[in-house]
Specification:
Blueprint lengths: L22 H7 L3 H7 L5 H8 L12 E3 L8 E3 L16 E6 L9 E6 L5 E5 L4 E5 L5 E6 L6 E3 L5 E5 L6 H4 L1 E6 L9 E7 L2 E6 L5 E5 L6 E3 L7 H6 L5 E7 L2 E6 L6 E6 L7 E5 L10 E7 L2 E6 L4 E5 L6 E5 L5 E6 L11 E6 L4 E5 L7
Antiparallel strand pairs: 1-2, 3-25, 4-5, 5-6, 6-7, 8-9, 9-10, 10-11, 12-13, 13-14, 15-16, 16-17, 17-18, 19-20, 20-21, 21-22, 23-24, 24-25
Length: 370
């Protein structure tokens, strides 16, 4: 079904949000795959991983091939096979500090974040149904209601775009889709540009304004054209189940996969999605699923958040070599490089949102992590 753009309101709640979700909302949150795994990680890890292994590639399968980072074309090099050893820490560890304190874990869930390049950090707060705008000193500049906001990105037109309908309790009321708002407006007024989609989370936007939506519990990365219609052929070709975070680098789309015990990171050529390949598996053992969330590009590498393990993982996209850049995070959900954000370095400062409610600044060593 094609999704047509509309000009309606956000579909979000009106008035001030409650400080804590209602009991029904708390119960609904426990059915989210990341939340359920967190709550049962000690007692039920084996059961969860065994079930998810059904979606993992068989051990005897041939390792897919991946294009080189330099050419970024269909020419390929062989992707590394999964190892049996856990990930090592990077030679140099990043420094973490709290930029914005959180509240009750899971109940104060900040899902995603993005810089507008004009001095504001925009954050989607899924449980409070708000999009928040923060100044470089951590003060809250503005916020406005959005029903269950998820992935948030800056488009090629300078506008901000945010998924809505992520909250499992309320998405059935207004559905899901994408909103657009002007980050330079004194009072942003979001407008629907895509409606009638559900089960979406991660968001990426290419240079032509096409939207790509990760779907945690469905097959196929959803591609929606700027006019709001769905590119069904592209979506069917990108037939990966359980994608979460999305990041475009050149003519390649990278995706983290949540519901797969091997915790893969996948590369999808924008012009040939059927030839998607696995960059690496970040869970070498079936019971160590990392519950990968969002990812970003940084200094020629990918940085991927592990919701379960509280890690920021560095992945070299050509070889698949990986190491842990930062630990001690609390259910990280997204990571972005600072851009036009006061004195925060655009070369070294990353910001991470968490389901704990915190926003954390991660500073990478001056000469890289190694």
């Amino acid at each position: 079904m094609n999704r047509k753009p509309t000009g309606g309101p956000t579909g979000g709640p009106t008035g001030k949000p409650t400080a804590r979700p209602e009991p029904e909302q708390r119960r609904a949150l426990t059915h989210h795959p990341r939340v359920a795994a967190f709550l049962r990680r000690t007692a039920c890890t084996a059961v969860l991983a065994s079930a998810l292994t059904l979606t993992a590639p068989p051990a005897s399968a041939a390792t897919p091939q991946a294009p080189t980072a330099t050419s970024r074309t269909s020419s390929a090099v062989k992707a590394p096979a999964p190892t049996t050893a856990p990930l090592d820490r990077c030679a140099q560890q990043a420094h973490t500090e709290v930029f914005r304190a959180g509240g009750p874990p899971l109940l104060d869930w900040r899902e995603n974040l993005e810089f507008d390049g004009h001095g504001t950090l925009w954050v989607s707060h899924v449980t409070r149904h708000r999009v928040e705008g923060y100044a470089p000193d951590g003060t809250l500049r503005t916020s406005f209601p959005v029903n269950g906001p998820g992935g948030i990105r800056r488009g090629p037109d300078g506008m901000m775009y945010v998924n809505f309908g992520l909250n499992p309790l309320t998405s059935w009321v207004s559905g899901g889709g994408i909103l657009r708002f002007d980050p330079t407006a004194a009072t942003p007024k979001p407008v629907k540009v895509v409606d009638g989609v559900s089960g979406v989370n991660g968001l990426a936007i290419d240079a032509d304004g096409n939207f790509y939506l990760g779907r945690e519990l469905a097959t196929g990365i959803l591609k929606i054209r700027p006019d709001g219609t769905t590119d069904e052929k592209w979506t069917r070709a990108a037939n990966i189940f359980g994608t979460n975070g999305l990041q475009i680098v050149g003519d390649q789309l990278y995706a983290s996969v949540l519901t797969n015990a091997a915790s893969p990171v996948v590369r999808i050529p924008l012009n040939d999605p059927a030839h998607h390949t696995t960059v690496t598996h970040l869970s070498p053992r079936p019971f160590d699923i990392k519950l990968l969330d969002d990812l970003t590009a940084f200094d020629g590498n990918l940085l991927v958040t592990s919701f379960r393990d509280g890690e920021l993982i560095q992945v070299e996209p050509t070889t698949g070599r990986s190491c842990i850049l930062a630990t001690g995070l609390r259910m990280p959900t997204s990571v972005r490089l600072a851009r036009g954000f006061g004195d925060h370095s655009a070369q070294r400062a990353l910001f991470v949102s968490e389901a704990s409610g915190r926003i954390v600044k991660v500073t990478v060593p001056r000469h890289g992590a190694g």
